[in-house]
Amino acid sequence: MKTVDYLHLEGSKVNNVVNGLQQLLADYQVYYSNLRGFHWQVTGHGFFMLHSKFEEMYDDVAEKVDEIAERILMLGGVPENRYSEYLKVSEVKEISGVTCGHAAVEQVLETLSLLIGKQRAILSLASAAGDEGTVSLMSDYLKEQEKLVWMLVAYSTNTCKKD
User: Fold this and answer.
1) Is this structure's pTM higher than 0.85?
2) In sequence order, which residues have a C-beta less than 8 Å from that of residue 84 and are 6 or more positions away?
3) How would you classify residue 130: left for phi > 0, otherwise alpha for psi between -120 and 50, otherwise beta?
4) Contact 119, 71 (CB under 8 A)
5) Is it the case that residue 80 has pLDDT exceeding 70?
6) Angle 47-74/132-156 helices, nearest 10 degrees?
7) Which of 64, 157, 154 is nearest to 115 (CA)?
8) pLDDT at residue 160 greater than cutoff 90
9) N or C: which end of the chain has fewer CB within 10 A?
């Protein structure tokens, strides 16, 4: 028997979920690499806060990568582990040389927007397949990322008035 049989899930119904998770895994891996670059390369105004924040973010993404890969395995798939393959399919593009904090935050917001859209689609597919485990995982990611987006938008909005 396969794992999905014990989970009372139909393999054919979760194939679309697995495919969505495979894509999400590739996107997260490239996002992780970009966050590391921002952590290392951003200088100037906001450096101390952003340096720490990017480290916190890439640690969180590393955990999500593991969770996504393990979920793929639970659903009968085999997660990709080669960056060369990630780069072929990822919609998140590699970024380097970003030293301005504002530009890095804008890139993060664009990536989060992409990931949020994909996670909502996976949540819908998982719900249709009766895959509550993946629904829960995507819901948790969305709740966390929606708050992060709000905070990053608030950070990057210059509403201070000079007297």
Assistant:
1) yes
2) none
3) left
4) no
5) yes
6) 170
7) 64
8) no
9) C
